[in-house]
């Protein structure tokens, strides 16, 4: 019985590798197209200045196992006078400056956060 009979790992890998490559490449193209669509949609929206209140803050952390670096994303949920709520991704500095219960003027365009100006409350 020679090496030619039975299971041939190299021929299986030569079939599987292109399939995996196409799936990964397709996912990258899909993600890029989705991001471009959101960017384009945001550019078509008007830039709004509305009264809002910070109702919650959260973070999302990924990575950080062993010696691997971690990434942190920051999110803030605002409530409008109508009672509607929306969540925006913000940078770490902005996240640190906002506190739950803050009221003021929220500036945004579609799903793009532009800023929040806190209104001073009388004390």
Describe this structure in words.
The protein is an alpha+beta fold. It is built from two helices and five strands; from the N terminus they run αβββαββ. It has helices at residues 9-44, 92-97, and strands spanning 48-63, 70-80, 85-90, 103-109, 112-118. The protein has a five-stranded antiparallel beta sheet. A hairpin with a 6-residue loop joins strand 1 and strand 2 (70-80). The radius of gyration is 24 Å and the shape is elongated. It starts with 8 loop residues before the first helix and ends in a 5-residue tail after the last strand. The relative contact order is 0.16. The mean pLDDT is 90.
Give the low-confidence spans.
none
Task: Report how far the terminal alpha carbons are from each other.
Answer: 91 Å
The biggest beta sheet, please?
5 strands, antiparallel
Mean pLDDT: 90
The assigned structural class equals alpha+beta
Q: Topology as H/E string? A: HEEEHEE
C-alpha Rg (nearest Å): 24 Å
